[in-house]
Structures are given as C-alpha cells and as structure tokens.
Amino acid sequence: PGQGSTEPTMEESLEAANLDVINLDLESGMMPKNAPRMEALADALNALGTAYQRKGDFDDAKRAYDKSVEVGLLLNDTYVGRSKQSLGGLCMHFEKLDDALRHLQESRECYERGLGKDNVRVAHPYHHMAKIYLQQAEGCEGERQISLLSDAKANAKKAFEIRDRGFMKGSGEKLKDESKKLLEEIELKFAIYDKETELGKDDVGVSELYHNMAKRYMEQGRLGEAEKHARKALDIREEGFDLGEGEEVKEESARLLREIQGLSEIQKKEQELGKDDVLVAHAYHNMAKIYLEQGRLKEAEANAKKALEIREGGYAPGSGEALKEESRRLMREIQGEIASGG
Questions:
Q1: With contact defined as beta carbons under 8 Å apart, do 299 and 262 qualify?
Q2: How many Å apart are CA 164 and CA 177, to the nearest integer?
Q3: For residue 185, what are the CA distances in angstroms to 180, 226, 304?
Q4: Please, are residues 250 and 238 in contact by the beta-carbon 8 Å criterion?
Q5: HSE-CB of 112 using CA atoms within 13 angstroms
Q6: Percent helix, strand and coil across the chain, each rounded to 5?
Q7: Which parts of the chain sit beneath pLDDT 70?
Q8: Eight-class DSSP state of 319
Q9: pLDDT at residue 39, rounded to an integer
Q10: Residue 331: CB partners within 8 Å, gap ≥ 6?
C-alpha cells in the first residue's frame, strides 16, 4: 500500500468478514459443506476471537470461540479441543478461573479422543490447569491449599512428562523448560507450606524459601510476584531477629527488594511511555546505581549506558545537558571501578 494507505489490519479484516458468521445458524443449510471450507471457517473464528481478546472484549471473543466450537463439532475432536483451549485461555485472561478449568478439562478430553493421550497438544491444557490450581492455592490455607497444590503438581507433572516424551531431542525445548519451571515453582510452594507448618509462618527459617522464590520470579520477569515474596522475606527477617542480629540476611533481602523495585520501575515506564522516552532513562540510571552499590559492575555499566543513550538521543542539542552529564559521570565512575578491578 502507498503512503497514507488506510488498508485494514488483519484483525480488522477478520472482523469485517466474520461478524455475520458469528450469528450464522449452523442448522440453516448455509454452512459450507466441504471440510476444507469448514476448517477455514473454524480457523477464522478462532483468529477473530483472538483479535477481540487482544482488545479486551470478553463477550465478542467468547461468541467467536463458541461459534468455532459449533463448527468444530461438525469436523472432529481436535478442532473442538483447540476452540475449548482458546475459551480456557480467554477465561484465564479475565480471571474467570472456574470457567477456565472447565474449558481446559474439555479441551484435554477432546485432544485425547482425537489425537491420543500422549500427543504433545494434550500437554497444553494440563499445563494451564496446573497454573490455575497454583493461583487458586495462593488465596487458601490449610487442607484446601494443600489440595490445590497437589492438583497443580499432578497436572504440571503430566504436562512435563507428555512434552518430555513427545518431542524429539532438540525440539520443543522452550515448552519442556516451561513445564519444568512450573513444576519447580510448585515444589517450592510445597516446601514453603511444609516449613510454615513445621515452624510457623513468621519463623526466620521460612524466609529463605520466600527469598529464593522471589529470585526465581525475578529471573522469569514476573516482577509483581517477585516483589511480594521478597517483601515477605524481608518482613519475616526484620520481625524475627532481635535488634542487631541477622543483619547480613536482612540486608540480603533489602538488596533483592531494591533490585526488583528498580526493574519494576523500568518495566512500568517503558509500558507507559515507550522504551526511548527520556523519563525511562531516569529508571535505568537508578538501576545502574543499585547495581553499582551491590558491586555488580557489568550490570551497572549496561544500565548506565542505556540511560545515557536514551538521554543523548532524546534531547535536542543544547537541552537536557545536566541530565546527560549526570549519566556521563556515572558511566565514568563505573568504568573506573571496572578498570581498578573493583
């Protein structure tokens, strides 16, 4: 298309082509009779549902996915399973967890009938059901919590086993790693539960598990959960040790919390303003100072360099000079520490 073209996006084209399809009466005789056209219709309805989901429109996304289920019922279990999987993902996105579990369970059953119990596509609903059970366990205590964690573990283990067996060596590594990490996360949750049961929720012996969980979430980019667990570890340590005791582990928790908060600020600013906005540079500058304070000089240098690049690229010549010089000074300080073997 030429300059100034208003050619519609893929999502807009799907909407225009399929709004009437969502309302199509499948018993009216208007359905395409050959399988390839029906498959194309099911594919289009799933894509349409995804487009609405991205826009935050639950009702229209659900209508599209529901209609794709109807088409799938005229095709085979695999198509129904895919559409039920989409419905499960939609309900997860909108925090309708009980509905999500129901759709994912139905998706798993359809895939097993259509493809066999060991097909790698069966692992997807198992994996996401495990995530839902884990999320539900967060808000529970006692027997209910342990029951949900057990359900989460059983489903995560099944997903991992299917993926580990089903993919040839060297393929599906990302999905296998995804399942392995979820299983490890659930195991850590069990360890926290066991330690809290043994020692009490506020015992300093529990804090190391919360600290380790925070680090795991940070590495995965799940910064909200990382901050919650790091703060819990710090609170336990600050309350659990007498004055003047446990200073090293309290500072360990405080350092981790500062790092997570610094990364969260970068993430937030980039999402709000874009990656090259000059206000984002301030977050990178502060992150560089956090790493410098911790003696992590390579990470400090990378963040200071990013701050300087944004400021030099974002301000016109002659403006923002004080901030650009602030970044240059920090860069010189970090590079000096690196050169001296600091």
A1: no
A2: 9
A3: 9, 12, 33
A4: yes
A5: 11
A6: 80, 0, 20
A7: 1-34, 342
A8: S
A9: 87
A10: 301, 304, 305, 308
Report the pLDDT value the prediction gives residue 169, as an integer from 0 to 100: 84
- Give the start-end residues of each E strand in 237-341: none
The whole-angstrom separation of Cα 339 and Cα 321 is 26
At 7, which amino acid appears? E
Rounded CA gap, 270 and 291, in Å? 20
Total-model pTM: 0.77
Q: What is the pLDDT of residue 222?
A: 93
> How many helices (H) does the chain have, and how many strands (E)?
14, 0
The pLDDT value recorded for residue 244 is 84
For residue 12, what pLDDT is reported? 53
Nearest to 64 by CA among 25, 13, 17, 18: 18
State residue 235's pLDDT score: 96
Residues 6+ apart with CB under 8 A from 216: 184, 185, 188
Q: Using the Cα atoms of residue 226, residue 228, residue 233 and residue 234 in order, give the sign of their dihedral.
A: positive
b/e per residue, 126-145, with b = 16+ CB within 10 A? bbbbbbbbbebbeeeeeeeb
Distance from chain centroid for Cα 132: 13
pLDDT at residue 17 in the model: 46
The residue whose two tokens read 């610094």 is 262
Q: Is the dihedral of CA 194, 128, 266, 296 positive or negative?
A: positive
